[in-house]
Amino acid sequence: LKTELISLCETLGDYHYDAGDFTGAIEALDDAIALLGAGTTKEDAQWLVSLQRRKACLFDDVSLSEKSLVLFRQTIAYCESSERFYPGAFARQLVTLWTDVSVTLQRIGEHDQAITALDQALAAGAATASPQDFAWTLVQRGNALDMSERAAEAIQDYDKAISLFETLPDHNHLPEYSSALFNLAVTLSKSGNPQRAVELYDR
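RESULT FIELD:
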């Protein structure tokens, strides 16, 4: 019964969010978190992380960036403590959470902190992330580096990401691969290498 009630609260939160009722969405997620409690199993703990991430993303959606960052970091700390009991079980969620932190930091102009957050995301995913997920995180760090006017480092990340994408079948159909090529071309153009940029635009 508890599982069904938590799921119902999640659904209610989605309904409120779709209706533009931010307060109702937060209250529904708070109810779900309260019902779940601290979590006594690995699955409960992972579910709690998911719920808290959704709440942090809601704060971010309405530009409550400070509240969002506080909750993201609290959830990261919970993941890291849970990893001691369930090694590897929270690695993917840690990658996602650190990436969320970087997005929020970039939105408020804290590009250097965003790069540090993406360093953490890459470290968390080094052993467990799929090549596609790891490559996309490299692209995002490249974006943050470019915004910080660290073009040479951004180009390195884009090149690494493109190489990883190209190990995947049908990589030409991946929007993330196209984004990596485009972003690399833009950075090359800005940093005085228009010839290679044109080659990338033509791919």
